[in-house]
Design goal:
By secondary structure, the protein is an all-alpha fold. It is built from twelve helices and two strands, in the order ααββαααααααααα.
């Protein structure tokens, strides 16, 4: 192993991670700098970089930070196994690229629905495309597309309107700190489930993928103004149904 060391700011710049994220990993005992400089600066070593790569790989594979910490501490997976798992994931993503036509069709529909598309909207389309590939399989995307094609333009507009109104109503109850087992909130949760099922045909695997997407991307343009707090609120309400 090389003897070179890195300060936290240097490591953040080289890896594209934030100093805040590295501080968080340190605070929860997931990854801490191994050495101290003569001036008591905490320094990351090559060994720390190897562990960081394992953390990032496992995180990309969908493991939570708590699960990653347990896996690494118990040595449940060695470095080669983690690399192999990520390779399999990357191969799957490469296969999805072959289905790019499906994504381009979706973008085409967005553009045809709007006469003027600003640069920011193009950026959102790129972001959405990347996120979709991460959370949904080719088969799931095709199934959702088939479900959506069953609706007329008027029906799609009506569903969009229902979603926006539903989110407004949920946010109002959240602002009032209404308990999630309140009858009115339970009714809103039932409406959430019903609207979701219109697009996934009751497919539990798609629902789970969508839930992971919502949980991990609170500021996504696909969220329809559903922030993390609102999402957790309605999820808790659905647990009472």
């Amino acid at each position: 192993m090389e003897q070179q060391t890195w300060k936290i700011g240097e490591l953040a710049k080289l890896t594209g991670l934030t100093v805040r994220a590295l501080h968080h990993y340190d605070q929860i005992g997931l990854l801490s700098p191994s050495q101290l400089s003569a001036k008591d600066h905490r320094l990351y070593t090559a060994k720390d970089i190897v562990r960081l790569q394992q953390i990032i790989s496992l995180k990309q594979l969908g493991f939570s930070l708590e699960e990653i910490k347990e896996l690494l501490e118990n040595k449940s997976l060695n470095h080669l196994q983690i690399i192999n798992m990520q390779l399999a994931s990357v191969k799957k993503q490469m296969a999805l690229q072959e289905e790019l036509f499906l994504k381009l069709e979706t973008i085409q529909e967005l553009l045809q629905a709007q006469k003027d598309v600003c640069v920011n909207q193009f950026m959102k389309i790129i972001e959405v495309t990347n996120m979709i590939e991460k959370y949904f399989t080719k088969e799931q995307l095709e199934k959702m597309k088939q479900q959506t094609q069953q609706f007329s333009d008027e029906e799609k507009q009506q569903i969009d309107s229902e979603w926006l109104q539903l989110i407004t109503n949920i946010r109002a109850e959240l602002a009032k700190n209404t308990p999630t087992n309140n009858q009115k909130v339970l009714q809103l949760a039932s409406q959430w489930q019903a609207l979701t099922n219109q697009f996934v045909a009751g497919d539990q695997a798609i629902i789970e993928s969508a839930e992971r997407f919502y949980a991990e991307n609170p500021n996504s343009p696909l969220q329809h103004d559903v922030d993390k707090e609102l999402y957790l609120y309605i999820q808790e309400a659905m647990s009472h149904i």
